What we know:
Layout: E1 7-13, E2 18-25, E3 28-33, E4 42-47, E5 49-54, E6 57-63, E7 69-75, E8 80-87, H1 89-93, H2 95-98, H3 106-115, E9 122-135, H4 152-158
Antiparallel strand pairs: 1-2, 1-9, 2-3, 3-4, 5-6, 6-7, 7-8, 8-9
The structure holds 2-Methoxy-4-vinylphenol.
Amino acid sequence: xxxxxxxxxxxxxxxxxxxxxxxxxxxxxxxxxxxxxxxxxxxxxxxxxxxxxxxxxxxxxxxxxxxxxxxxxxxxxxxxxxxxxxxxxxxxxxxxxxxxxxxxxxxxxxxxxxxxxxxxxxxxxxxxxxxxxxxxxxxxxxxxxxxxxxxxxxxxxxxxxxx
Length: 163
Ligand SMILES: C=Cc1ccc(O)c(OC)c1
């Protein structure tokens, strides 16, 4: 786990959805969704379960205030990821409600999950290819600290984003 903590990654799922995660510490991630059904959503301090399955392969799992459940396997030596996302029915029907800096809208996520329908859930499962990986150290609040914009991931990959 030592090497994995502090890792920032950008990866693109086979359906084209581009995601970014920062493994902030043993039980916390920050993430930013650059494109896809809920592109524009970003989250800090999501509490997660994290386990090393075998050398170089880590599973990160969590349940969100929206009711969305996520389980992602990071295969660091292959540069690949496998993600499973269990969306409540309401997120698939009203994805725009979840497209925000979630930390400022926790009460809206909780009221929406009661107001709208949960079932049947919408399960999305895909492999992804890692397009950027860097260990930036633990507990860094600057890695994911603003909303995405067109071109951000290219800037991160080219090294021009963080100055
Ligand atoms: C729903 C959030 C979600 C789903 C899949 C992911 O790979 C992810 O990484 C940050 C986040």
